[in-house]
Protein: Ferric-chelate reductase 1 homolog
Organism: Drosophila madeirensis
Amino acid sequence: MTLTVRMVRRARKGVGWRALAMTMSLLVMATWLEPSQSLPQGAPETVCDTMLPFHSGGSVLPQNSVSPFSVETSASTVGQGQTVRVDVTGVPEGLTFGGFMVQARNRNPPHQIVGQFSPARDGTVKLMNCENSVNNSATHSNAGAKPQVYLEWQSPVDFLGQVVFNATIAQSYSEFWVGVPSNPVQIVRRDLGAVPLPTAGPQPAFGAALPTTRAPYVPPNYVAPSAVAATADPFYNGCGVSKNCFGFPDGCVNTKTCNSIAAVTVRGDIYEFEIQSGRGSNAAYVAVGLSDDAKMGEDLTTECVPENGRVTLYSSYTSATPYAAVRASVPQNSARLLNASIVDGVIYCRVERDPVTVVKGRTFDLRRQQYHLLVASGSSLKENSVGYHDIGRLPTGKAINLAEVQDLSGSSNLLVQLHGAFMIAAWIGTTSLGIIFARYFKQTWVGSQSCGKDQWFAWHRLLMVTTWSLTIAAYILIWVELKRAVWHAHSIIGLITVILCFLQPIGALFRPGPNDKKRPYFNWGHWLGGNLAHILGIVTIFFSVKLPKAELPEWMDWILVGFVVVHVLVHLIFSITGMASERHLSQRANTFQMGEMSPHHQQHAMRNGMSMERKMDAPYGAMRKGLLGVYGVVLVLFVVVLILLVVLAPIEQFLGKS
């Protein structure tokens, strides 16, 4: 029994006011000479880094046994800016403690403190400002015995990853545990409209630089759940023997290293799906879809999403344009959650689906139809659906009978990628350059020919034949890939572009002679058809960015806008140069002194002058050639960047791997 407790008991037995005064004096002295079991006003901010109680001389060390207290959270996955409850309790019921200090730290280096705590309504919690941030740590406001403490913690809006709540818990002056950890909590990206921010409490000072700190303190004998040695994953048991297994990256089932994986087991009319995210993938969800064409859109999906500390099952139907996973369209009782868990960030669920599900008049019959399996996972959530599959997604290379166990491999997007690359090369590259040659270079390189034709015409013809060839090839490739017509803005405008492109060279074969009276009509028709096809081709590429099957980043629109701006500016500069050239030619023609010439000599001189002008380059030829060179280089850069975005799509996943 401590000195202070014995003196208080003596005072209660009636020693008298003098004795009581002496007792209180001694109590003050005892408090001064030796800190109480728990600092009555909570931990000072000088211990933010060590989390060690402020015991004089450091003579009392933390316990090295397993803590009888635990730190638990109400959810294992939360969105940025959302709130989670943190409970500090004794493992044996009724066990009390006096003091505590809690922080949420980045699980990975530099282990900085993140987020902020909200003030407790009952006044039992004191908030601390560590590392120059507001309310990012919490401690006790009084040293009284308490069986548990409930804290509200808001995740930061500028952090993604895992955090661990570390606590120092003091049962008495000489008995305290430092670095008692919670299970990891995953902070995931969340759409702005879906983030329910707290309505009370001060806001964190986001944007301040966070200094590097030491790793969270863990007692030597304490073994955190994440530190347990990984054993062989039982998920892969039976793959290729009793169940179909498929995951990404392609071929990961053989090495048992999938970032996400799905398995299908069929027993009669019972269809069981297992889905699991990869260790360390930071997934906010994992899903498997049933698809007719191995592309995102118009698929029946099964999604496993950690919510409020447990895994929740959702069924969705994905729309093709614009892409969205709609849960309201699918009967949620068409699938039942049989088993689920989330351990050390790994999401697992086992689901039984009905053999037949009808969604928007479309029947998904697992017994009679074949489907591609499509595995996907992502690090973000939307308000009523999962977010983008930025961690990855992969469909099987062929549609399968789910009851037939077989080895599965991923599908190839080669034809789609070639289609996109050919169309970009044709309508951003060769067409743009071909139009420039035909419009502005008829009076450049005069007298120089290639294959018996003027230079401008030879280059124009070569570039436009290339456009025609690439466009027809790309159109054939996409038909081979899709095997059916899919009508939306991209396909409709694209078809019109292909028709115009196909007719242009055919019309050129019937071009009237230079002096034919129908030649002006041909010139206007040829000009209109070519420019209309060019404009529609670029618009079609803009619409392709919105297609979920293309998996192109939304910011590709800005690259296309940049190309349009450059192309228009180049046309403007060439037009101004052309007007200046015509004015120069007009002034040169007026220098002829024809006033004293007879009409016959005037006509002869004018014919000679015009003939001479046609045999030499128009003025400012060097400027036109220089601008053409610069435009050609910039155009190649645009084409290369856009083709890379198509070929490496989804670019976010590619950059994540690299």
